[in-house]
Design brief:
Number of domains: 1
Shape: elongated
CATH architecture: Up-down Bundle
Radius of gyration: 17 Å
Number of helices: 4
Oligomer: single chain
CATH class: Mainly Alpha
Order of helices and strands: HHHH
Amino acid sequence: MRSHKDLEVWQLAVELAVAVYAATRTFPKEEQFGLALQMRRSAVSIASNIAEGAARHGKKEFLQFLYVSLGSASELETQLEIAGRVGLGTDSALKQLDSRSTSVLKMLHGLIRSVKARQADHAPMTSNR
């Protein structure tokens, strides 16, 4: 059985979280418990929910956690936008994080499609009487 650590999207999500931590260290001290903390929580939630979903036994549960990860990734994108508009972080760091976040979102969408397709392949046949 494969581990969540084998999933490329989980690996990228972990890298994204690490990059968010590094970028938010440069935020002003008064933001460390504001937007910086929210961004860190969102980023950590992406990888954490992929891992938790992968540990569940059914595809339906896995999908549920993938959707939560998708929501956290969307939260992070919004927080990155806000950080840029209020002048937190450097433009280059925020652009790099946004690019990584977009990659994770795309991979999550792809994994969701794949899991749904496998779920449909194993759905019980119904008769058309």
